[in-house]
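Lab notebook, entry 181. We have the chain sequence and a SMILES string for dtdp-4-keto-L-rhamnose, and the next step in the workflow is to get a structural model of the bound complex before anyone spends time on docking refinements. Request logged below.

Task: model protein plus dtdp-4-keto-L-rhamnose, output structure tokens.
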Amino acid sequence: MNVKETGIADCLLIEPRVFGDDRGFFMESWNQRSFAAAGLDLEFVQDNHSMSSAGVLRGLHYQKPNPQGKLVRVTHGAVYDVVVDLRRSSPTFGKSAGFELSGQNRSMLWVPPGLAHGFLTLEDATHFLYKCTAFYDPANEHSLLWDDPELGIEWPLGDMEPVLSEKDRAGRPLANAETFA
Ligand SMILES: Cc1cn([C@H]2C[C@H](O)[C@@H](COP(=O)(O)OP(=O)(O)O[C@H]3O[C@@H](C)C(=O)[C@@H](O)[C@H]3O)O2)c(=O)[nH]c1=O
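Result returned:
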């Protein structure tokens, strides 16, 4: 697999090795040993799977305390995946970055603990899968406002209004959000 820096400290883009043949393809979506060799020595406790129609925006989510590291990917459809660094001690605090993840490119993103994470679906029936290093903890879940001007995220929405949950409509801007040391 190929591991690339993203411009956000500790956040990595992973391109798995895909073996195609006349039956289809095969890839390892998680291998503890190969990831450890690439510097990602991880223990996961939860796997999640969501499906969304086109134009759904989920996020930007994080937990504090009990932040989750997430290894995210798309198996069908496509998303614009976004992270925001909320670690005050990080050289990239307050910065965001966006990546296209799709069933076609099969790229994965490692989102370290301390980042807010969200995505906009670009196609119908987009299946989003992720592994988490900490359990879901709804009492400590936070939503960072997806369109906070301070973040300046360029969501590829055109004139479209995204479909949001009530919780995400009420997200907090960075200036009032919980952050990490
Ligand atoms: C995230 C999650 C949700 N749920 C339940 C709670 C709720 O009734 C229903 C839908 O939850 P949500 O609206 O929070 O789902 P969703 O908006 O898809 O939340 C996810 O968004 C992306 C961007 C992330 O990064 C994830 O960590 C997670 O926060 O599923 C669980 O039981 N376990 C979980 O781990």
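Notes for the group: The longest strand covers residues 78-85. Worth checking against the assay data. The two ends are 32 Å apart (CA to CA).
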